[in-house]
What does this fold into?
Amino acid sequence: MTVDSNFEVDLQGKKIALGVTGGIAAYKSVEICRRLVDAGATVIPILTAGALNFVGAQTFKALAKNEVITDLWSNSDPMIHTSLGRSVDLIVVAPATANIIGKAACGIADDVLSTTLIASRSAVVFCAAMHTEMWENPSVVENVETLRRRGHFVLDPESGELAGGDIGVGRLAGIDVIMRTIWELLEQTQDSPKVDISQQNTQVSISSHNQHFRGLRFLVTLGGTREAIDPVRYIGNRSSGRQGLALLNIAARMGGTGFAVSTVDVPKSLGFEVIHVETALEMQEAVFGKLNEIDILIMCAAVSDYRVASSASTKLKRSGESIQLQLVENPDILFEATQYIASHDLSVITVGFAAETDNPLENGKAKLIKKGVDLLVVNNVCEDGAGFDTETNAVWILDRENTISRIDLSSKESVAEEILKRVFKSIYG
Ligand code: PMT
It folds into this structure.
């Protein structure tokens, strides 16, 4: 299979079941069907009763040049769900409504598509599309989480205009994105985890749309810790949690699951178990509680090195005098974690961050050794657009072999992608 920069894919020899469900975006699956056929795939369209309210079976039949499956009973093959489930390389559900996501998560098999899904061991990609309220509904969030945990690929909907003129998250992902995801999933299932990562820097050809981290568990810390001075005041820092959220987002897209130890809100739909913490000591406890269960530790949080020795139980009042706060050192969580991992012979890739204000590379190299991490992401937080509470970041990724990769100013999502590609390289060499 090959792919060019416009996501024109070659899917010769691939057999794909295209499940279409009853959402307004069903008309877009006509185009998906055409693109798959043009790419050389054998496409078997499966239309639910809901889909037939939006699109016609004849359209798919003409495009796919194949029988269109609309129920379990009126096919030449009486066991259509199992024979299809066994013979296809991939099932694409586009659009995937809240209904089919719920059925798949709960194991309900009450029509031809849900029954085929349950009768198949092939990879599945659900291209979610629904109204924002539905996508954010806790039951949908949990169902998406369940599917991701089981290793299915759920492609998030995009923001934009929805049926009825509403605006919000819920539009079916772009067709190029869907085609690329299909291609990458097929590539992965063909040769997993074979990828071309011949270059040591950020130009690796692995992609954040591929489920490279399927089956691997992350622990990502994010946000800034707060150390109480009194019930209303604290020692804190400017971390917004954006860089950590971007890491979680991309890790989820790449098939990762696990834990987010966070001082900020983390969307449940990402599929990570969220452990809310406030202080460094709470973070330490949360991290150590999960160290034996993870494959990758990424400490992106800005952790206070000091806490107030004894915080006041009531609000400090003005007295006309200056006051002194006695600070005691917090544990160095990352250092302790790498020590624990080494002494317990755990197989965990460790990634630290360094927030530097001067000599970033020199200080970063020393910090990599001191903290005992596999990779250190250094940001010069005095650089414009980089570091705390910005939408963008610019970093260097250092490793133990002294290689240095620079990622110039770009979105925190792009930085997260490059970091995770580097993590992937550390795992698979
Ligand atoms: O959240 P954003 O607004 O998006 O900003 C992102 C960020 C600037 C917070 C992030 O990119 C970043 O640099 N995070 C690390 C901040 C930091 O605490 O750096 P440090 O150099 O002080 O610490 C080095 C490493 O040790 C970090 O991985 C830190 O999590 C860890 N640490 C630090 C102190 C401590 N007591 N225990 C620790 O584990």
